[in-house]
Design a protein that fits this description.
About 45% of the residues are buried. It is globular, with a radius of gyration of 23 Å. The termini are far apart. Helices cover about 80% and strands about 0% of the residues. About 5% of the residues have low confidence. It folds into 3 domains: about 200 residues, Growth Hormone, Chain: A (Up-down Bundle); about 50 residues, no CATH class; about 180 residues, Growth Hormone, Chain: A (Up-down Bundle). It is mainly alpha-helical.
Length: about 450
Amino acid sequence: MDFARYKALLRRRELTLLLLVGMVARFPHSAAGVLLTLHVVLTLGRDWTSAGTAAAVMTVGIALGAPWRGRQVDARGLRRALVPSIVAEIIVWGTVPHLPYEWLLPVVFIGGVFTLPVFSVLRQSLGVMTDGEERRSAFALDSIVTELIFMTGPALAALVATQVSTTVGLTAVGVAASGAGLLLMLQNPPTRSDQPGAVSRPDAEEKRREALLQVVSAAPAHLAEVEGELVDAGGPAPRRRIRHRGRRLRRRFGWVTGAVVAVFATAAGAGLLLAGTDVGIVAVLEDADNVGELGWVFLAWCGASLVGGLLYGATRRRPPPVFLLLAMSVLTVPAMFATDTPTLALLCIPSGLLCAPTLAAASERVTELVDERRRGEAMGWYGSSMTAGTALGAPLVGVVIDARGAPAGFLAAGGLGVLVCLAALAAQAARRRQPARQASAAD
């Protein structure tokens, strides 16, 4: 363990400022879901199904928009890519409180699509502003900050909605998000290793990949395909068009390897596991008529994640993210044996310890696997994978709880997490065996 790395990181003014700006930028949207749900129920007088639909529509918009927003950062640079989000945030969330429910749904979907790409920008910037073990500590710090935000944001949102008004809260979300975007533009942190403020430099393998991408992108359509097969310029036009489209797809998604897919699967599994655990905690306490003690359980669960993140960022070892998720999934299951609020809080601590480390390790792995020219888009897909897992986790675990009782929710959440990990490991093993089979066939 080397906790001095945190001290060295926080001494760097530009990095500390980036983490603070990231905290400000993430805070509004940690509260947006709760505010939107309560606005539909309390202000518009609709039922909880309508409220859940509105939150789901916003989530789908975020999942679809994240890769596109990240790709804009890669292609156009940070400042130009942020402008549409800054404008959309204040317009959307300033308009939503004054709309009827039928108009609210498409507008919150647009708001989700144009959500400020804070996640991808911060992880891109941290990836080039740090290197080696320092990068691990930086990602751990970011995970800890995120944990703090999601411990306080929803609670503050509920307070504003019930004590002030949902209209004020939703408008504040737009103003705060746009203001955070302006702060991010003003700081303009580097997203490429050749920009001012970057520390890391592309290694030889990354430079080789960049050179290959440039060659492939510049190659005339009639010269060669990516695999080296010659394209028959005199062949049938449909065949040429198919091959040309195939080359474009490979250039477009050439960064998507088996290892990258495994990391995305890990992110989806983490989202599924966290959402399922969340539902399980609420269901167990509701069955015991102890919903008022929910805060104590979440304090233990999230507090353990903070401690785990600090320990992970100080360690010199780097366990694969899929193994961290596997361990977190297994450690979630014992919570089904909780008999009261204190035992539930205690049994949530072991899995909580691995939450921030799993997310930090997965982000670090994406940074290593994906060329920085595509990293913004990759981080966007990473965020979308986690969002998709979160969207699936709650209803799937809810079905099990309805059928088998509240304690079974933890078994379902942990079991689903284990299945995702096993699928990711199997995909990686198959990918590793493929070159061996090809070599054997060639012999």
